[in-house]
Fold:
Amino acid sequence: MRNLAYTGICASGKNAAILHYGHAGAPNNRQLGEGDIVLNDLGAEYYCYASDITCSFPVSGKFSQEQKKIYEAVLDAKESVIARARPGVSWVEMHELTERIIAKHLLEIGVLKGNLEDIIKAEVPAVFMPHGLGHNLGRPLVL
Structure:
């Protein structure tokens, strides 16, 4: 049995930064614009096993310089977590690594100001990663 795990979330422009944008009460009716980024958050379900993936891409096919810097920050975080993932490494450690890498990049490009350690301690990266590193895949546990 194949299904959608949930209604797809597809947004562009400023709406791509809104969690779970577009639903029956506030449908997604924005037209794509030059310079926009499109975000697709899509999920599939197969015999009650659910998974999802989120991807973003530029409408024009090419990132602006600012967009490229953010893309590279996320790519650096992703590659660092993949390199670190192995038995014995906790999810929390990988999440904290991701927050540190994202914060470091945001400092470098001027989105954040201050000291990296103070930013981490104040949990500022959570503003940019409200869902954290991610979540588990599979069937829900019913206890």
